[in-house]
Write a structure and sequence with these properties.
The chain is of the alpha/beta class and about 270 residues long. The chain is built from eight helices and seven strands.
Length: about 270
């Protein structure tokens, strides 16, 4: 299927590895020019070099080693040489999730950091790009959030709170007048994927239940109807579809990718 987005420009956060990499790769393979952002310069540049080799140089790939949650980091993105400025057709917001733990241990600074990274940063990226998208008659914004928005996880309280705030914001903004101007905003909710994020959260969950990390991994996979963790490539393919011409009638949605783990009907 031709997704109809070849030649467009995309901004992808957290693009050096994991789910962000999966999204950046899927878009690049569809002919999209991608500005790939991550904090770690060495890993990011290697990822971009590898993807450039995979795509055979057919698209423009630009690495920006910055912290997208800061004002300076976002300014670097808007001003990167060879990039589209703020004239992106596609924006995939993705910042690392806050650490797991007990809510009794989190002070105000921990909450502000979580909200800044997982709610306010995506809003700032949307604010900077959405009006240009509307003026050009095409725009796709995909926020990578978490399945915890639908089914909260107790040790991920910081993430539950911050991402739920973003979800409420998107619910209203996506249904404003931009919906009639060719711009969609959707949230993509990953369940358990085989990435660094799950490797970081497993120890806390295992300790709480008195299990080893290996036992916790096996328990989690057994609870997923698909019987396994998802892959970044699978996630990227879903993201690319939401960014495509074919998803023009989908907006304000929370698309859950979790191997069937969520037990509800709605």
């Amino acid at each position: 299927m031709d997704l109809g987005i070849a030649g467009k420009w995309a901004l992808v956060g957290g693009a050096s590895k994991g789910l962000g990499w999966g999204c950046a790769r899927a878009l690049a393979l569809e002919g999209v020019n991608v500005v790939m952002v991550a904090r770690g310069a060495e890993v990011l540049h290697k990822t971009v070099d590898d993807l450039r080799a995979e795509t055979g140089g057919r698209v423009q790939l630009i690495a920006v080693a910055q912290d997208i949650t800061t004002v300076a980091g976002r300014e670097a993105i808007w001003n990167v040489a060879g990039g589209p400025g703020k004239n992106y057709d596609i924006v995939v917001t993705n910042a690392g999730g806050p650490p797991p733990g007990d809510f009794r241990e989190w002070d105000r600074d921990a909450w502000i950091k979580a909200i800044d990274g997982n709610m306010l940063t995506p809003i700032e990226l949307i604010k900077a790009t959405v009006d240009g998208m509307a003026a050009r008659g095409f725009g796709r914004i995909v926020n990578i959030t978490s399945s915890a928005v639908k089914s909260p996880i107790d040790v991920l309280g910081l993430s539950n709170g911050a991402r739920s705030g973003l979800t409420g914001f998107v619910a209203g903004t996506s249904r404003s007048k931009i919906a009639g101007q060719g711009v969609t905003i959707n949230n993509l909710l990953p369940g358990k994927f085989d990435t660094d994020r799950i490797r970081a959260t497993l120890p806390a969950m295992a300790q709480k239940q008195g299990k080893t990390v290996e036992e916790m991994r096996a328990i989690q996979q057994a609870q997923i109807p698909a019987g396994r963790y998802g892959t970044a490539q699978e996630f990227g393919a879903i993201c690319a579809f939401l960014c495509s011409q074919h998803a023009a009638y989908m907006t304000g949605q929370n698309v859950l990718a979790d191997g069937g783990a969520y037990p509800g009907s709605f």
